[in-house]
Amino acid sequence: MTKKSGWQLSGDGPDAYEKYIVPAYTGAWAKEIVNRACLGVGEKILDVACGTGLVARTASEKQNSSDLIYGIDVNEVMVKKAREIEANINWHHSDVTDMPFPDNKFDVIFCQQGLQYFPDSSLALKEMKRVLIENGRILLSVWRPIEYSPFYESLCKVLEKYINAKAASMLSGAFSFGDDKKLKTIFANAGFSSININIVVKQMSYSPFEEFVMGGIMATPFFKDIQQMQKSKREEMLLEIYKSNQDYIDDNGLVAPLESYIVNAKKQK
Prior knowledge:
The protein is of the alpha/beta class. It contains ten helices and eight strands.
């Protein structure tokens, strides 16, 4: 993320992210984006907006090496967690628009669900292009519009009703870059070529549902607002979340679709 990112975790947020969000869906998305890169032996890899380092770790498993893997994020708490989980990867606490790397350093750059949070997405992409080698690849994912992710669409409505518009806006912001034409344009304007955009559909799943809701909320910037609610009001809110997702709850828990764009592009003169 960048210094002005609207999605910053603190406290136990990184632990909650790893415990609930990774197994529910981001782990599968990390494998998807890494598999699409068809990594070669000895390639240097950068995970931008790395958070707790999920994509970097996934790439490291593919490469059977961590020496050539780098991760960068502006959120120091997340970088600390990433380093705690895997100390051998090269972690950096820095802004994506001013990365501490020389030109033409990396063969592959990954960015999973980070672009929508950058205050200057064009500048961020140009900086990523700077540190890529010629013919280097970038693979980046952003959620499609929120209506393609029904669990989060319903959660957004509940947050606006029970917390405030700011919390709802913060969540909906994760889905604010769901326009493939806009994506292609900003990549082209940043100087990338061979731009290919795919719609990918996966499902989020977690059992039990109630544990995921509370655990997932811990991995958000508005967790404290929910913590401070009166118990009866919080229980009422959780019940409404449950009722609004009945179509996506089976005997094992939550099973709901998530749709994302995955962009694959190259740096070429």
